[in-house]
Amino acid sequence: MAKELKDLTKRSEDYSKWYNELVVKADLAEQSPVRGCMVIKPYGYAIWEKMQQTLDSMFKATGVQNAYFPLLIPKTYLCREAEHVEGFAKECAIVTHYRLKNDPEGNGVIVDPDARLEEEYVIRPTSETIIWGTYKNWIHSYRDLPLLINQWANVMRWEMRTRMFLRTAEFLWQEGH
User: Fold this and answer.
1) Count of alpha carbons within 13 angstroms of residue 26, beta-carbon side
2) Could you give the dihedral angle defined by the CA atoms of residues 14, 15, 17 and 18, in that order, rounded to the nearest 10 degrees?
3) CA–CA dist 95, 8 (Å, integer)
4) CA 53 – CA 167 distance, rounded (Å)
5) β partners of residue 123
6) 147 near 162, Cβ under 8 Å?
7) Which helix (H) or strand (E) holds 38?
8) pLDDT tens across 26-60, in order?
9) Checking DSSP bridges between strand 149-156 and strand 65-66, what pairing results, if any?
């Protein structure tokens, strides 16, 4: 379904407003009920898939293989890489509990205080720490190299200023290691 992209704010007047209007009117995405997140609509996601397919075939032509690493990263892993994480530590989301329960007061659900995790998890802001922690199990000698791994995933960072597709709290991501 084609939409006419008229009545946009002029790019030269307010670039940020123009960009956001363009994304919405082009039916690429819309704001999510979660602050800083977006819903990628079918046409917008089709663009992502095309980029991903093109890059994926280029990576695979060089011997890269795809893998997937956990979304939840033990906080101790990030502590080991404190210098690396420092740049986005303020943007990390932390998981502290593993269960909800019905509120005894009848107000929906609450976090079950008895379900506190022994160790907190960070929702993946980047995957280096979990990947390097895994590689130690995969690489035992130089004969195991080169290890060419790519991951298509999502990451979570509580961005202060968001703009759909450019800087959102959760975004699609490609990581090659």
Assistant:
1) 16
2) 110
3) 40
4) 22
5) 72
6) no
7) strand 38-40
8) 999 999 999 999 999 999 999 999 999 999 999 99
9) parallel
